[in-house]
Amino acid sequence: MHFAEVEDLSLTPNQTREFAIYINEVKIADFSPRYLQTDTFFLKPESQTNIKFLLVRTPTSTLPPLINALEIYVGNTYAQSFTSQEDDDAVTSVKMSYKVKRNWQGDPCLPNSYIWEGLNCSYASLAPPRITLLNLSSSGLTGQISPSFSNLTMIEQLDLSNNELTGDIPESLSGLKFLRVLNLEKNKLTGSVPSDLLKRSNSGSLLLKVGDNPGLCTEVSCGKSNKKTLVTALGASLAALFILLLLSGVFWKIKKRSNKPDSAVEEDTENEARNHPKSDSDTLLFTFSDIVKMTNNFGRVLGKGGFGTVYHGYYNNLQVAVKLLSATSAQRFKEFRSEVEVLVRVHHVNLTALIGYFQESDQMGLVYEFMANGNMADHLSGKYDHTLSWTQRLQISLDAAQGLEYLHTGCKPAIVHRDVKTSNILLNEKNRAKLADFGLSRSFQTESRSHVSTLVAGTPGYLDPLCFKTNELNEKSDIYSFGVVLLEMITGNAVISDSETKRVHVSDWVISILKSTNDVSNVVDSKMGGDFDANSVWKIVELALASVSQNVAERPNMQQIVRGLKECLQREESNKNHQ
């Protein structure tokens, strides 16, 4: 309890303020607050269920009690496990070894709002959190690299740059199979870089930074024995044999393909593409200096949001969009990691393609294909001079629906997007759409359970209200969001609009208009004029309202939505062909 007198009682000598403080009917003290000075009482009630505070004026007081602030602390319980014991022990050992001067108290990863400074963790619903990033750059570390770092078996990024570390780089770091970034720059390390780390660096699977270590050898040849010549000769012979075999194989394959008709060659190409989809290695790892050049020093802004800023750029004469994640976003690493993980494993014509990503120190972001015509939300709001026709809106909605259908049914395990909205539907120069922004996406085991428990996340207005009640998420949560998208597409209204008395959701507005008039043309975006088939609009309205139903069982699945959109689009195109 915080108290401070707000009236200058010295100006009125006959006025006094004094009162007794009771907690659960036990008197704690008689108290008279001081003018514009704070007094704080820390009270520790024995009961944890029923706590009653009373402020009672004493008989001599002429003024009633006052209180300026009251803080109540409640102990939270977490269903999630504490940080993996292996990781906890490792990072605690690092803390003790280097006497780390940071506020590293309690559990390293929980609560995730109070995660240890310089750490990032992965949070699976049933498994203990694991440490995936440790940044101890410029932390005054001295001595050798602790073997405890090698016990962080799930770590992906380790930054020990700009310290006073000495001695060799431990071979045990090579055993960190998930390590993607290792920054040891600006230390006093000596000896040689372990050969396995160099191999991974050369293959592109590890971003290794060891510059500004004058005594460190970064060549594979370091530390070789006198058998070096024999090994080199043997290696050269094997390399020559490999090249010979490779050339023979290429020649044989060219000859084989040349004997086939063109149709057979095309079939081979299609089969190869189907059986060997785009791999993780197609996704590039950029440096921050690459991004600066790519965007011409962040010269052109395409858009801004809670995640950060999107810039226009060029990569090998290809236009790209570069999303630089905001340093103020509390969940940015988790969302960055989620988006990379989703986009390197899912590939569909109606999902934005990830060209690459970057992460250096506190800078991180993603490089996508460029979508020339912005997002659907801007078109519906009138930001562009051109108004999307009903047929164009149907095609855009169908494109986005097919992308979402692929996430729900084409991926194993299935993926829930969790942030379906018109601003995440991007348009190319031909107004064909792709679904974007997978930072909140989660995998979903459809065979094993009906939902996944998670914290509520998404955008107000698009977020399934049932998520607030249950914290349970499944594909029907995306269906609700997509139903809202369809209603925006039909009406051109914002998802939530302000009336004179209250805020109105687009679904409530549509329902009220149709109940009073039963005329679907009254809910259609007036900017389209009358260029639409009323029957197809009714079909999409029914589909949208079913999608936002409070009864989850009434909501269609994405296959049904795709089928309905296709039917309406075909009807519109057929009508135009007969005009």
UniProtKB/TrEMBL annotation:
<dbReference type="GO" id="GO:0004674">
    <property type="term" value="F:protein serine/threonine kinase activity"/>
</dbReference>
<dbReference type="InterPro" id="IPR008271">
    <property type="entry name" value="Ser/Thr_kinase_AS"/>
</dbReference>
<feature type="binding site">
    <location>
        <position position="323"/>
    </location>
    <ligand>
        <name>ATP</name>
    </ligand>
</feature>
<dbReference type="InterPro" id="IPR001245">
    <property type="entry name" value="Ser-Thr/Tyr_kinase_cat_dom"/>
</dbReference>
<keyword id="KW-0597">Phosphoprotein</keyword>
<feature type="domain" description="Protein kinase">
    <location>
        <begin position="296"/>
        <end position="579"/>
    </location>
</feature>
<dbReference type="Pfam" id="PF12819">
    <property type="entry name" value="Malectin_like"/>
</dbReference>
<keyword id="KW-0732">Signal</keyword>
<dbReference type="Pfam" id="PF07714">
    <property type="entry name" value="PK_Tyr_Ser-Thr"/>
</dbReference>
<dbReference type="InterPro" id="IPR017441">
    <property type="entry name" value="Protein_kinase_ATP_BS"/>
</dbReference>
<dbReference type="InterPro" id="IPR001611">
    <property type="entry name" value="Leu-rich_rpt"/>
</dbReference>
<dbReference type="Pfam" id="PF13855">
    <property type="entry name" value="LRR_8"/>
</dbReference>
<dbReference type="InterPro" id="IPR011009">
    <property type="entry name" value="Kinase-like_dom_sf"/>
</dbReference>
<keyword id="KW-0547">Nucleotide-binding</keyword>
<keyword id="KW-1133">Transmembrane helix</keyword>
<dbReference type="GO" id="GO:0016020">
    <property type="term" value="C:membrane"/>
</dbReference>
<keyword id="KW-0812">Transmembrane</keyword>
<keyword id="KW-0677">Repeat</keyword>
<keyword id="KW-0067">ATP-binding</keyword>
<dbReference type="InterPro" id="IPR024788">
    <property type="entry name" value="Malectin-like_Carb-bd_dom"/>
</dbReference>
<dbReference type="GO" id="GO:0005524">
    <property type="term" value="F:ATP binding"/>
</dbReference>
<feature type="transmembrane region" description="Helical">
    <location>
        <begin position="230"/>
        <end position="252"/>
    </location>
</feature>
<dbReference type="InterPro" id="IPR000719">
    <property type="entry name" value="Prot_kinase_dom"/>
</dbReference>
<keyword id="KW-0433">Leucine-rich repeat</keyword>
<keyword id="KW-0472">Membrane</keyword>
<keyword id="KW-0723">Serine/threonine-protein kinase</keyword>
<keyword id="KW-0808">Transferase</keyword>
<keyword id="KW-0675">Receptor</keyword>
<protein>
    <recommendedName>
        <fullName>non-specific serine/threonine protein kinase</fullName>
        <ecNumber>2.7.11.1</ecNumber>
    </recommendedName>
</protein>
<keyword id="KW-0418">Kinase</keyword>
<dbReference type="InterPro" id="IPR032675">
    <property type="entry name" value="LRR_dom_sf"/>
</dbReference>
